Amino acid sequence: MKKLITTLLLTILAILPVAARTRVYHNANPLPAPARTILKEQFPKQDVNRVKVDSHALRGDQYEVTLSDGTEIEFGSKGEWIEVDCGHRAVPKYFVIPEISDYVSKNYKGQRIIQIERASRSYEVELQNGLELRFDRSGKFLRVED
User: Fold this and answer.
1) How far from 25 is each of 31, 76, 144, CA to CA, in Å?
2) Fewest CB atoms within 10 A around its CB: which of 4, 27, 39, 95?
């Protein structure tokens, strides 16, 4: 019985990577409605250059969007934003909770947030000077990242 379970588990683990697949589109059509809304409202002057859809058996679809100005945005399976990278331009205020924005403006005067990543328990932001800061979900500063 133990061999059967082990064999079954190994078979499943071998099949899962095959079940993952990637597709590329050159418009916003494959994105969930919330993601399309975010793009329309926060980046109204930018066109979608590419949408890379990674399909995973366990996690569902993940979307990587590249806009005409080079901005890259990652969305989860329901259209929720995960990461926004605006290159050298400031991330729109929509993505930055006020507590983080206030902390950065008070402690790093003149620095813009150019990248933000939202995880289950934290935010990580990158400033234009390359400094990376970590905050908890309520916007409380935790530490400077290496």
Assistant:
1) 10, 16, 37
2) 4
122-127 and 113-118 beta bridge pairing: antiparallel
Q: Quick check: 104 and 113 in contact, CB under 8 A?
A: yes
Residue 146 CB neighbours (<10 A):
4
Predicted TM-score (pTM) of the model is: 0.83
* Residues 77/57, Cβ–Cβ less than 8 Å: no
How does pLDDT run across 54-96, given as a tens digit for each residue? 987 667 889 999 999 999 999 999 999 999 999 999 999 999 9
**CB-CB neighbours of 129 under 10 Å:** 10
Amino acid (1-letter code) at residue 8: L
DSSP string, 83-139: EEE-TTSPPPGGGS-HHHHHHHHHHSTTPPEEEEEE-SSEEEEEETTS-EEEEETT-
